[in-house]
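Let us work through a complete example step by step.
Step 1: write down the sequence.
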Amino acid sequence: MSAIITNIIKILNSNDKLITHCYKNKDDLTCISKRLVDKINSYLKTQSDEEANQKEIIRQAVRKAHELHESDIVFFKNDCIFIKFFDTSKVKIICEEEKGTIACRYNGLDEDELKLFYDNFCTAKESDDFYREAAREFVDVYLIEKKIDNETYEKNVFQYIQSIINEKLTSKYDKNDVFFKGFSGYVFRIHFEEMFEYIAHFILFEVSMLNKQVIGFLNYYSLDVIVVNGKKYKVPQIKAESGLKWNVVSMMSIVKIYNKVALSIEQINLKRELLAKKLNEFCIGELSPTEYNNMINKSIDEAVLEINATARKESALKDALDMSKNDDERKKLKDDIKNIKGELQSLAENKKKLGEKLIKQHALMQYNNIKKEIDSINRQQKRDEKILQQNEEAYLSIKTSLIKALISKKQYSQKP
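Step 2: predict the structure and record it as tokens.
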């Protein structure tokens, strides 16, 4: 055992008050608080050992500190560490006859337990990203890299997708093949439609990019009937509810336009976000450079008015001094003039300082140019959104029809 793991164990053991056992009244769940995790991370920052992943070092220390079984799960969530004690005795043993049936859907695990884990530790936003990435990986790995044919796809698609989900779950949480094999089956079932929506989306994107491998894969669904080992099979059709059949040729122009403008809108949003950050760098507090300069110029105008009024007072005092013959009065007038001159000097310095605060013209030009660029891409987005809207109904018809085909299999027709 390394010295680092030993020291983390000591930190864990000496801070038991920061560990909640039976978290949320669940006997099989323990939570190591953010405060204690911060202490561990602070310690790790003092160490130069970067040979292993820090999360894995912490996971090993937690396992040893709590004497966990290999089947128990240690994972990081919301800046805390959770321990899920996994009772393997509750796993239903799947007999040979039940393999491939609904009985082994979740690898012998209780669905309620899987639902509980899902409800507590899988957020909507994370799920959206998770399944989008899983769908992209399926298209990249199996359709593009491995170039599976349609027969292989029909036989193994669900197994392939579940294996991707399982790998991503064990990478995200912990290595527990028994639990996450069952859990991957559970989440695949409840996100089944979402997964195939993403897969269809990425397939159509590849079609719009003229990917020959994916186009070849889709051409299968235009064959109508095929013969395999002397038997005729009806091939699933990319067919809309209206009865309209889609093939690669008929869908190509629509998906090319749709994906082109969809990508354009995505790029515009990213560009606008970057430009907005640049624009914000020119702002002073909540004020834009123009608003800020207007405020300063207003203060300068007020300062000029005050200077002019004070200068008139000075002029009046000088006239009175020229006309006065009384020594005492003249002395007082001279003192007043001296004070007025001091005021004028102070007001002039204040006006100068205000002028120095003004944002320079070149910076204003940069700011206005960025604003013009944002206005320009906003207009482009409106044009793109109009094109997107014009093609959306047809695109959704294609995608929905493709999803139905992707989850279907060829059906035995008749003997030749």
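Step 3: interpret the result. The chain has three domains: 3-86, 96-261, 283-358.
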